Amino acid sequence: MATVSKPHSDADPRAIEITKGGKMIFYPRALTITWGNDNRYWRFLPSTNLKDPKSAVQLLQVSWLEVTCSTDKVEAGQTYKVGFNVSLQPDAFGWDDVEVFIMAKVGKKGTYFFKKTSFGKRLGTSSKKFSVPDEGLEIKIVAPQSSPGDCSLYFGLYEVWSGKWKGGLQIHDAFVEKV
Question: Which class does domain 13-172 fall in?
Fold first, then answer.
């Protein structure tokens, strides 16, 4: 049995890249992953570089999928698209009949906006990368009334409602880009 002092992996801000075009890329170590420090559930694929575009974190099995990240490097009044670049391994399981949510909000106490997607339709196909949500989730940066100074953008990938065990997902990165 795995012994872990802290079961969840916390984001390492050094694993975020901002491209010349202003797109923010959150590599696997920049993600906060529930149960991410427990090798029964998740595995970080070996990489010596925190910003390795070939890196990934692999979901072995969980019933509670929660992968999040945040940034304060957004501008009030601007609209941003958020999402994740993922792939499914040939032995992926548990994705039939479940909806995966990509959710985003402005400020810690902000209201979530979301899009749903299904990975079930992609099972049994090749393990090529694809972006979720398919059509993108856009959010305008407006400070919430409950906390006017907090314009940070929080977003994540969630499937916590079905109670089904699922695995075989690889997360290559998350992204934020100005629309």
Answer: mainly beta
